[in-house]
């Protein structure tokens, strides 16, 4: 028999999925179109969609309340990042990636599978993802036009928070993933980056 808690967490996961995939960022005011900034911020929006998928997937099979609470808090931060990046893209009159559902479900599967392998593996995936995201965000900060102050501010705040997520995952018992797995994750990250920059 399916436990009630199972149904509850399924409803919660579907609800959050709808919130991410149906997300329409606010557009406070329009600014001049800046192709370069739009591309970079579209990639970052896609990355945040993937972050939602990863944390939701890991949290879905997590029973430990301490870890559950970590995933829930990270999801709140990541949703804020998602909203900032999306609003930024739209305010520069850009569009979001068509592939967002693919990033979401891909990352959800990775999060879920890593948690099935064990709680410290799920945390290991989170810690490694956040480490790679940090490198990526610092690179984007170098590449963003100096005059795009708003996008730069967004990335700087994200850098601080992603770092905190990674540290917290390590503190909670993340295992160091084998180098081959880290390389595979980096390759997937490059696919997300180059596809969502264009599509
Ligand atoms: Fe984030
Ligand atoms: Fe994060």
From TrEMBL:
Protein name (Swiss-Prot/TrEMBL): 2-polyprenyl-3-methyl-6-methoxy-1,4-benzoquinone monooxygenase
Lineage: Bacteria, Pseudomonadati, Pseudomonadota, Gammaproteobacteria, Candidatus Comchoanobacterales
Gene for this chain: coq7
Pfam families for this protein: COQ7
MF (Gene Ontology): monooxygenase activity
Residue ranges of coiled coil: none
Protein's organism: Candidatus Synchoanobacter obligatus
Keyword annotations: Cell membrane, Iron, Membrane, Metal-binding, Monooxygenase, Oxidoreductase, Ubiquinone biosynthesis
Classification via InterPro entries: COQ7_proteobact, Ferritin-like, Ferritin-like_SF, Ubq_synth_Coq7
Listed Gene3D superfamilies: 1.20.1260.10
């Amino acid at each position: 028999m399916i436990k009630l808690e199972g149904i509850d967490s399924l409803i919660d996961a579907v609800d959050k999925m709808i919130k991410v995939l149906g997300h329409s960022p606010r557009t406070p005011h329009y600014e001049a179109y800046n192709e370069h900034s739009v591309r970079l911020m579209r990639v970052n929006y896609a990355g945040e969609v993937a972050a939602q998928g990863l944390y939701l997937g890991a949290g879905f099979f997590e029973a430990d309340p301490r870890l559950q609470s970590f995933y829930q808090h990270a999801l709140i931060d990541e949703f804020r990042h998602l909203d900032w990046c999306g609003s930024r893209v739209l305010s520069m009159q850009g569009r979001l990636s068509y592939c967002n559902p693919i990033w979401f479900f891909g990352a959800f599967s990775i999060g879920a599978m890593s948690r099935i392998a064990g709680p410290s593996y799920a945390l290991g995936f989170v810690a490694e993802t956040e480490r790679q995201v940090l490198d990526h965000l610092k690179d984007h900060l170098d590449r963003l036009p100096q005059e795009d102050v708003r996008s730069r501010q967004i990335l700087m705040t994200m850098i601080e928070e992603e770092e905190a997520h990674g540290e917290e995952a390590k503190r909670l018992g993340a295992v160091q993933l084998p180098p081959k797995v880290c390389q595979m994750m980096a390759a997937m990250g490059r696919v997300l980056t180059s596809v969502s920059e264009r599509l």
